């Protein structure tokens, strides 16, 4: 079942008819009705949802969080204007995809299938002690909980974990974060990023998992 949300009955009834031609059932809601339904619907009803199709309506950006509190089904937002800021805002709100209208329902179904395949694929990850780093863009998990980090601190953690069991030099870390051709940043700036990262890890774990030795460099999972 595809849930279609839009305040315009012409839109919801149109998609209902088009999906029916593809043999796909739908449930249609106006925005206010949808919010009430998501909050009160039985688990059995929500488990039947294959995807949520969000039309253009006020406060659409609050829906992804509400949906995620009850369902893991893909969320696709329909865009009636090609507006970069609007698209980025929708992704930031938590939708899985943004599709510009007009769009054929077959393409919508194909996108739903692609999202589900990505979600079901086993994510590549590296685990060192209580630290788990993913290679699919997700935040690292530390002590069983996601830890959101600034981009450079995150990249440092990923690099250290990928080189678990051995030390890497400050120069190696700098090259991994800034690139080997960046001459506009002082190499010592990496020490500041590492210091901030280590403090955050220590606060979460109760100890500092990053070992450092002068002249030898930094490491995770080293003696």
TrEMBL record:
It comes from the Bacteria. GO terms for biological process: regulation of DNA-templated transcription. GO terms for molecular function: phosphorelay response regulator activity; transcription cis-regulatory region binding. Residues 123-222 form the OmpR/PhoB-type domain. GO terms for cellular component: cytosol; protein-DNA complex. It holds the Pfam family Trans_reg_C. Residues 1-116 form the Response regulatory domain. Residues 123-222 bind DNA. Keywords: DNA-binding, Transcription, Transcription regulation. CDD domains: trans_reg_C. This is Response regulator transcription factor. It comes from Jiella endophytica.
